[in-house]
């Protein structure tokens, strides 16, 4: 009888471990944080937003790109990936990269130039903010005029048209709004994932499978709310 009970307890323990492995117990305050001030989203009505706060000048964001691509493919049909460029590292030219992204977004070319911009900073060095030989900040830093020429080459758009948008009041306003939103979300650094304007994922969640599982969990949690 005792042998049977021990066997039963062993089977139940094994089942509990298997269930825990299949469905991690995500903890608020450790794996994710509820934003004190919920933020508006930028996706279409009926869609849930998964937002990456990033910068082209951020080496961690560049390394995170393959994970972001896997996350995009792992989202449920009602969710959409969006991007918000940060500018809080002024010494490394982040405001210029932010301006370039908002100009590209306004001109409808942000999606197809997203990876080329990362490559121009971290692969070819055309728009790099750090010298690959000395590992020091470049002086002078890349300019929006240089970025305009790169966008023109990638898309066929005239550099002066890109510059006109980049220096417009509209883009200035979007930059200010982005800075305010990033501060309101208490973003500690980049990359940072925000789920539907309500939940911020902890920096410790970086593996693609964990990130996808947690994002899907938070989307379901938000829908149930």
Can you tell me about this structure?
The structure is a single chain. The chain has 225 residues and is an alpha+beta fold. It is 52% helix and 11% strand. The chain has one domain (28-224): Glutaredoxin, CATH 3.40.30.10. It contains eight helices and five strands. It has a five-stranded mixed sheet. Helix 3 runs parallel beside helix 5, helix 3 (94-106) crosses helix 6 and helix 3 (94-106) crosses helix 7 (169-184). The longest helix is centred in the first third of the chain and has 21 residues, at 2-22. The N and C termini lie far apart (47 Å). Residues 1-22 have low confidence and may be disordered.
List keywords for this structure.
alpha+beta, globular, disordered N terminus, 52% helix, 8 helices, 225 residues, single chain, Glutaredoxin, 5-stranded mixed β-sheet
Q: Care to give the gist of this entry?
A:
The protein has helices at 2-22, 59-74, 94-106, 110-122, 144-155, 159-166, 169-184, 208-224; strands at 32-34, 48-54, 79-85, 192-195, 199-201.
Number of strands: 5
Helices, by number, come to: 8
Q: Quaternary state, please?
A: single chain
Give the name of the CATH superfamily: Glutaredoxin
